[in-house]
Design goal:
Strand content: 15-25%
Oligomer: single chain
CATH architecture: 3-Layer(aba) Sandwich
Structural class: alpha/beta
Distance between the termini: 18 Å
Radius of gyration: 17 Å
Helix content: 40-55%
Number of helices: 7
CATH class: Alpha Beta
Bound molecules: zinc ion
Largest sheet: 7 strands, mixed
Number of strands: 7
Number of domains: 1
């Protein structure tokens, strides 16, 4: 870990992290933190006309290109879309992912989002994140020294999510948009499938959260308040 501390964002599908906390990650990176982006699923069902294997390769490359925009590290897990389930094997897998990145702060999905993979990723991260520093719990990577703080990022389009902390992303909104622009396949797919423009969604959500905290653009978060990882100190940039 560098002296600034590592930051880990865990999303279900390649592009969720960019959409929901890309600005905050860009800020962390600018401040000198090492940023990791773990996408649990291949994203293999995020397309219409291509073969799944083709979509997997394309989305992995898009995720890499997006991470490069902010000098972050991207890695993709081994879940197929719709197949993130809560069990001991997957909890241990997530413990190992967290240990590998040794973060001081973790971001993941809200426990109340729309997609099963989002909900189950959120639950797995919660379960895993308070056990990562137990030396007796063996995984491929060694136990961390500290318990990371855990923050839930916004839901898709903000439905049912009431932030209690905000990060002003005005100075990095261009980077956030540039990250999302790397996910070309999803911009096309979501437009075709849901008639939603993801770039417009980023701007409108950012503006809306910005209105709530007197910033031009912002991202909203809720911290997971659970003993013993919470301190009185504000952590977010
Ligand atoms: Zn998703």
């Amino acid at each position: 870990m560098n002296s600034k501390g590592n930051i880990l964002a865990i999303g279900a599908h390649p592009d969720d992290i960019e959409l929901l906390c890309g600005g905050t990650l860009a800020k962390y990176s600018k401040l000198g933190h090492k940023v990791y982006m773990y996408h649990a699923c291949y994203g293999d069902k995020g397309g219409l006309d291509k073969k799944s294997e083709e979509i997997i390769n394309e989305r992995r490359e898009e995720a890499n290109n997006s991470a490069k925009v902010i000098n972050a590290v991207s890695f993709v897990g081994d879940f197929r879309d719709g197949e993130v389930t809560i069990n001991l094997e997957n909890r241990l897998l997530l413990i190992d992912v967290i240990r590998q990145c040794d973060p001081t702060v973790i971001f993941t999905h809200s426990p109340y989002d729309y997609h099963t993979d989002h909900l189950n990723t959120s639950k797995l991260v919660f379960e895993a994140s308070y056990m990562v520093n137990l030396p007796k719990l063996k995984t491929s990577h060694k136990a961390t020294k500290i318990l990371p703080r855990l923050f839930y990022f916004d839901t898709i389009s903000g439905v049912g999510f009431n932030p209690v902390e905000y990060v002003d992303i005005t100075d990095v909104i261009d980077l956030k948009i540039k990250m999302m622009m790397q996910h070309k396949s999803q911009i096309l797919f979501i437009k075709k499938y849901h008639n939603v423009d993801l770039l417009e969604m980023i701007k409108i959500n950012g503006k809306y959260r910005g209105f709530q905290c007197n910033a031009e653009y912002a991202e909203g978060f809720v911290e997971c308040i659970a003993w013993p990882r919470k301190t009185a100190k504000r952590i977010l940039p």
